[in-house]
UniProtKB/TrEMBL annotation:
Keyword Magnesium attached: no
Assigned keywords, A-Z: Flavoprotein, FMN
Ranges of residues in domain NADPH-dependent FMN reductase-like: 1-148
Protein's name in the database: Flavodoxin family protein
Single GO term (MF): oxidoreductase activity
Entry keyword Flavoprotein: yes
Gene source species: Senegalimassilia faecalis
One matching Pfam family: FMN_red
Gene3D superfamilies: 3.40.50.360
Amino acid sequence: MNILAINGSHRAGKGTAALLNAVLESAGHQGATCELIELSHLDIRFCSGCNACLGRNRCAMHDDMDLLYDKMMRADGIVLGSPVYFGTVSARMKNFMDRTRPLHMVDNALAGKVAGMVTCAGLPDCGCQGALAAMDHFFATHEMLVVHPRPLGPVTGDGVAATQLSRFNEAGDPEWRSVKDDENAFKCARRLGHDMFNLIARLS
Ligand SMILES: Cc1cc2nc3c(=O)[nH]c(=O)nc-3n(C[C@H](O)[C@H](O)[C@H](O)COP(=O)(O)O)c2cc1C
């Protein structure tokens, strides 16, 4: 079983990557073979809007997306991670999404694969839902099966979203923390890896 994580953060190895690694560690612990791809390490040009993919399942451009098309096709599960930028995904993640159009226009080449998403933000109520919804919609367009994790115990949220705000102090100033201190988010991320593994196992 192969699970591929794709990080749309411009900052490799930071908050979003930490969340994705928690998903992969959990799935890997159960036996999945996992890989994390940092989009910021790849050379991926903007979709040019040429529409060549209306009639063929490969992009007219050739760059590091070629590698990703193959990896996505081989994966049983794909988890996307993006920081929240102005209430939605980063431009790097959005361009990656656009460049997957060749896998969607002739037929839905990714249909039936299992999916999940995580996001990382500065503030708890400032756009996490928008970023998660953008990735959810992306997966729906590709006809993929999206896992919405629900850890045991009290409900703490409705998606894997880690935030850096710790609290506002007595003076009203924000105090910041590492996203790694957002225990609920990491608990939810581990549950996502667990649930993705189990759904893929049940389907195979
Ligand atoms: C251009 C820009 C826009 C941002 N927009 C938001 C936002 O709308 N809401 C929010 O809570 N945080 C916002 N942030 C903060 C990032 O989401 C946050 O720093 C995130 O943890 C970065 O993830 P990373 O560690 O993977 O880079 C923004 C940051 C940048 C640089």
